[in-house]
Amino acid sequence: MEGIKQYFNDLASSQPRDLDIKSEISTLQAIKKCLTSEAPLAKKPSLDLEQDFLTVAADSLGADYTDPFPSFKLDAVLQSQEELNDFTLYVLERRYGWSEVQSSREQSDDKEQKQRDKAIDHEQVGRLKSYLNELLDVFIHWFLCQSISVPILCSFRNAISKASNRPVVRNQAVVIIMDWLHQNCHQPCFHKHWRQVQELLSCGITDIWSAIRNACIGRLKPIVDRFTLVKLEAFYCTLVKICQNRQSSWQAKEGAIMAVIVILRNFHWVGRLSHSFSEHSINETSFYLKYGHEEMNQLPRFLADSLHSLIYPLLAHPQISVRENATKAFSSFLSRCDFQEALNALDEAISRLSPLKEPISVVSLVDDGATRVVDLPADEEQFIDPYEAEGLISVCIGLIKQIPASFLLQKWTFYFSVYNICLMHPASTVRQATSTLLKYLVAKSSQAPVVLKLTLQSLVTNWCVSVEQILSMHQGIKRPNIKITGKSHKR
After folding, report:
1. Closest CA to 178 of 203, 195, 210
2. Which Gene3D superfamilies match (predicted)?
């Protein structure tokens, strides 16, 4: 064991540029040989072939990777945290750091390595690098086959921190970490060290590089699905703190709200009730929400009570990707609530769009059947922030698509008065977004033909038209004399 540790320390304590690639390969081969040769002898197969088959199947059940060194645990071979940190960083940087852009200092230091490689044929160097990558892949598979433990969790977090200027290395490290957590999320050790797991997940979710955030979020769903509701609430609260912290970068807020979307989408509507429900509840509803093995009639209180206060500030964020993901999160939330929640959300969003501090009085249809649009003051100072307006309009668009036209007609004057003000907003992006909203509103005429008529009437209600001026303009227009020149072709 001491010999193996010495090999590990020789690799981890030296920078890759200080190592001759042949010596590096020889050291890795020696480590691999030691870990393989010191493995205990396999048990002799018994005469019961069926029992042997079931034993092998049970040992490898659910494993996506084959442990290259099943007799050794990584944190048992490298018992010092510093040694484990160094070796983890070495494997990740050496395997995935080939394509990284080197700093000027590293480029100057790398000249010595190039001088050493001059004696080696260029094609031979390529073959040696390829073989080195194969050896490093063996050790990466060894990492993936380890059980979750605090030393390994800390070593991964240290590697991400040390690779702050190497995004490719960091990206691949996050992919390996997420695969490793997915491998072990059904094991007791996952829940035992859940706090460290959460901290490691936060590193990937809030990374400054978008590819790393997307890689982490894309692999988050099966891991979150293993959280208990208590742990899910704690994880959600961590994400809320990131979003509400003024010191958080927009990248961190974007990653956090994307993780909230994953949490919400892990709740699924199921079309029939489980036997665990009482007969009384079966008569009341035919749908329920399911999260993992948990069954419920509505979203947990920690989500329902806090999501509004989380989403609305993000809808006003200057970064468009943050606003877009906040809209997606709100849509995912409302699709898992009852219909009345969607109606209340539309009222709230339109009220926030209004430049008036006092609520608008709702005016119903006038006797002649036309609508009377409430006149609102439209001073430029009274318009809300354009970023917030765009975010709120995007929420309204999503709700208008889902809410039947009959419910929109009940408060038509209230809704359209605010839309009309948004059409006069100084920011062109807000006016364009409002035009898109009206397009989806007019599309509701397939459900209620009166929607198109009301929209047109509401738009032209305050237009001042002078018939005399139009007639005078028409009489004064001279029709142009159009002469066709050129030879005529007679048949």
Report:
1. 203
2. Leucine-rich Repeat Variant (1.25.10.10)
Determine the angle formed by the axes of helices 250-265 and 194-205, rounding to 10 degrees.
120
Spell 424-440 as b/e; 16+ CB within 10 A means b.
Answer: ebeeeebbebbeebbee
Q: Residue ranges per domain, the chain?
A: 1-38+63-102+121-226, 236-336, 338-470
Q: Which residues contact 194 (CB under 8 A, 6 or more apart)?
A: 231
**Strand-strand pairing, 268-270 and 288-291:** antiparallel
Place of tokens 């009437």: 457
Helices then strands (H, E): number in the chain?
Answer: 26, 3
Give the model confidence (pLDDT) of 285-335 as tens digits. 578 899 988 888 899 999 999 999 999 999 999 999 999 999 999 999 999
Candidates 204, 206, 225; CA nearest to 215 is: 204
Contacts 24+ apart (CB under 8 A), 435-441: 436/393, 436/397, 437/393, 437/396, 437/397, 437/400, 440/397, 440/400, 440/401, 441/400, 441/408
Residue 373 Ramachandran class (φ > 0 left, ψ -120 to 50 alpha, else beta):
beta
pTM: 0.81
pLDDT category of residue 250 using cuts at 50, 70 and 90: very high
Give CA–CA dist 482/190, Å, rounded.
84
221 pLDDT more than 70: yes
CB count within 10 Å of CB 21 equals 18
SS3 290: strand
